Amino acid sequence: MSEGKRYRTALAKIDRETDYTLTDAVPLIKQISTAKFDETIEMHFRLGIDPRHSDQQVRSTVMLPHGTGKTVRVLVFAEGEAARAAEAAGADIIADDSVIERIQKEGWMEFDAALATPSMMPKVGRVARILGPRGLMPNPKAGTVVQAEDIERAVQELKAGRVEFRNDKTGNLHVPVGKASFSEQQLMENVQAVIDAVMRQRPSSVKGKYVRRLVITPTMGPGLRVDFSDYRTMM
User: Fold this and answer.
1) Are residues 150 and 130 in the same domain?
2) Which of 8, 59, 187, 208 to pair with 119, CA 20 to 30 A apart?
């Protein structure tokens, strides 16, 4: 089946004008995930924020109860005892001056998440323009700049399924919540964890509706609009 036919077949199974409950959306999203690979399931939030204002930025992390279904390659900018702790915790790359130089000169980016100790941030700043646009620049607000004594926990959380989210320039959030191969219960629990985390980050300066639209979608398939009425009291 070609990509076009597969997409049209999936599209025929849904109503693009319907806002599905999560109970209906999760099993349906599994049904329409028919690619030959294990598709990532993502949530897309259209937020009622003005991203031009610094006090209306939405950025945080969430621990997915069942992880992302992806092996996460963790790089840690650390030296000395912190570097040894990171390595013992399972970090894939310990970034010293030579690794920073490689990122700076070659644009090397073979990792999925990055942590740093505060003492390393002046050096990490040299590659901020490379890491930032890719969402890999360590940041205290995202919990990715950590003290040496917290390195082990932070590495383990990233490996286990801690996901960072932040709004883009249009006020949208895009958050992976697992794989199509996950059970309905696993996906549901991950989805609910993400919704709860996003709701907790509502800026106090936002007036009116906070979440204007929520869509859940597989990598290669159409999206399903999700009924958000169950969370209306939090909006």
Assistant:
1) yes
2) 59
Task: Please report, rounded to a whole number, the percentage of residues in the chain having pLDDT higher than 90.
Answer: 76
Strands 74-77 and 113-116: parallel
d(CA 103, CA 114): 13
Nearest alpha carbon to residue 214 among 1, 46, 27, 4: 46
Q: Are residues 45 and 116 in the same domain?
A: no
pLDDT tens track for 37-80? 999 999 999 999 999 999 999 989 999 999 999 999 999 999 99
Q: Does residue 1 belong to any structural domain of this protein? A: no
Instruction: With both helix axes pointing from N to C terminus, report the angle between 80-89 and 151-160 in degrees, rounded to the nearest 10.
Output: 30
For the domain that residue 210 is a member of, what is the CATH number? 3.30.190.20
Count of other CB atoms within 10 angstroms of residue 135? 14
According to DSSP, residue 132 is labeled: G
Looking at the chain, list the stretches that DSSP marks H as alpha helix, in order from N- to C-terminal side: 3-12, 22-31, 80-89, 97-106, 121-124, 128-131, 151-160, 184-200
Range of the domain at 19: 15-67+162-234
To the question of pTM greater than 0.70 for the whole model, the response is: yes
Question: Is residue 2 pLDDT above 80, yes or no?
Answer: no
**How far apart (Å, rounded) are the C-alpha atoms in residues 138 and 132?**
8
The total domain count for the chain is: 2
**pLDDT tens across 78-123, in order?**
999 999 999 999 999 999 999 999 999 999 999 999 999 999 999 9
